[in-house]
Specification:
The protein has 13 helices and 21 strands. An 8-stranded mixed sheet has the order 11-10-9-8-12-13-15-19, sandwiched between helices. A 7-stranded antiparallel sheet has the order 1-7-6-5-4-3-2. The chain folds into 2 domains: about 150 residues, Alpha-D-Glucose-1,6-Bisphosphate, Chain A, domain 4; about 300 residues, NAD(P)-binding Rossmann-like Domain (Rossmann fold), CATH 3.40.50.720. By secondary structure, it is α/β, with parallel strands linked by helices. It is globular, with a radius of gyration of 23 Å.
Length: about 450
């Protein structure tokens, strides 16, 4: 069987081929609804290089081993499946100059397992999955190339990233890598041989300051997950300490360096504003009261050592990030697919969201723009009430979304954490981000959900 797909970009062929050559391209090309785990990847597309990853197929995890061949930069490269779900798979990527840009021509020849039975029962499903996958790849490639081109006039940066294994960190690291930046990771385990990794232990105040000299940008996304489990007293203490201690350690260390970074971006959250009903909230609004506002306030104050040392310091107050492979959206999907994804309570609480692509593009925009500093709301300019968000998700999934979920049921399942994260109202507007000239990829929730789930209108 043969499958072909063409993507038209406006970028020069060398730039497009270089994007594919970067290790981060694998993560960026993976459909956003696929939960894939990279096991090992060589640093090149040259003949004999391999990439191994695992992905769920029903109740089991399937391993895919791909080997590269036909390496002829910047014209083409190929990969063949050495191990995986197909009898055979041969993928040729060609790069053709056209109309001042580049056409990426994908040609896949494959055979399904189980012979004639596989062709009868699996061919249509496979073709549908390929259509969705390559459309997602097309959108990501075009958008990433455009966002990188906005700052191509600047030199490539040396970037240190803490929290690179998290939901946002994985995508941010991959995106920055495809832009040609030098990415290093702060990790809490022993660094892997040959990898750009620096070890630290924030809970013990341990970090090698000399290894932090000379970075242009430092980004800190780390911290214990807010929505991962019930909020016991111990968990709430960990949520705050994991943020404040690590941020203060990093800020103090950066402030004392001989070669300080130009910019220090620290993740924050719209929990800073607390439960505010219908009030329109901008970066000028006062903080709320309660556990999340107190945590976010202490979190942001922990970076003061860097700011006072003259380092441009940014606080990214992030909303609910829409990503089908994790976070809030992943938790919503099962009940929504079963027709039970209706409003929580009366659904009047405001839901301030951001697509994953806008999340990473906005952070990239802020660190690369020399005039940005202080707090920025990283949310869509069009928040909506939770009942309307539930209806949008229902439309995308073609499922009813009218059955309400009482807050008592949320409390029973998730405790105080669940109630706080699903019933508190925050109508947040990204005023300062829009003033910088940032252009949103997704302004309305339905288009963001369709991209995240691969459910585009035909």
């Amino acid at each position: 069987m043969k499958y072909e797909y063409e993507t038209q970009t406006e970028s020069p062929r060398n730039d497009v081929f270089d994007w594919f050559e970067r290790k981060g391209s694998f993560r960026r090309l993976m459909p956003p609804w696929e939960v894939a785990e990279e096991v090992r990847a060589d640093e090149t597309l040259e003949n004999g290089a391999q990439r191994i990853f695992r992905f769920p197929m029903g109740p089991i995890k399937m391993t895919w081993v791909a080997e590269h061949l036909g390496y002829e930069p910047p014209e083409k490269f190929e990969d063949v499946m050495k191990k995986g779900p197909f009898r055979s798979w041969h993928h040729v990527h060609r790069f053709v100059e056209k109309d001042g840009g580049t056409v990426v021509h994908d040609e896949v020849e494959y055979k399904l397992p189980m012979g004639i039975l596989g062709r009868i029962f699996g061919s249509r499903n496979v073709r549908n999955r390929l259509n969705r996958m390559f459309r997602a790849r097309e959108l990501r490639l075009i958008r990433d190339l455009q966002r990188h081109s906005d700052f191509n006039h600047l030199p490539r940066k040396r970037i240190l990233l803490a929290g690179s294994s998290g939901l946002i960190g994985r995508q941010l690291a991959a995106f920055l890598d495809t832009g040609g930046h030098e990415i290093w990771r702060l990790v809490r385990r022993a660094p892997k041989d040959g990898q750009n990794e620096i070890q630290w232990t924030p809970s013990e105040g341990m970090i090698d300051a000399s290894s932090l000299e000379g970075f242009d940008i430092v980004i800190h996304l780390g911290g214990a997950g807010i929505g991962d489990r019930r909020w016991t007293k111990a968990r709430m203490a960990l949520i705050e300490k994991s943020r404040t201690e690590s941020t203060e350690l990093l800020a103090r260390t950066l402030a004392d360096l001989s070669q300080k970074p130009d910019v220090f971006l620290v993740s924050s959250a719209i929990g800073w504003y607390g439960d505010r009903g219908d009030e329109i909230l901008t970066e000028e609004s006062q903080p709320g009261s309660g556990f999340l506002p107190d945590t976010c306030l202490a979190w942001e104050e922990s970076a003061e050592f860097a700011r006072k040392a003259g380092i441009r310091t940014i606080h990214a107050r992030t909303g609910v990030v829409l990503d089908a492979s994790g976070g809030a959206l992943e938790k919503m999907l099962l009940p929504a697919k079963m027709g039970a994804g209706g409003p929580i309570g009366f659904g009047r609480q405001w839901f301030s969201w951001i697509s994953m692509d806008d999340q990473i593009y906005a952070m990239h925009h802020l660190v690369m723009s020399s005039e940005t500093e202080g707090a920025y709301n990283i949310t869509s300019p069009e928040p909506l009430q939770q009942r309307h968000f539930a209806k949008a998700l229902g439309r995308v999934l073609r499922r009813p979304a009218f059955m309400p979920t009482p807050p008592l049921a949320i409390w029973f399942l998730y405790g105080k954490m669940g109630v706080a994260l699903t019933t508190e109202s925050q109508r947040v507007i990204p005023t300062r981000l829009m003033e910088t000239g940032y252009k949103f990829q997704h302004q309305d929730a339905e288009s963001a959900l369709r991209d995240a789930l691969g459910k585009w209108k035909k």
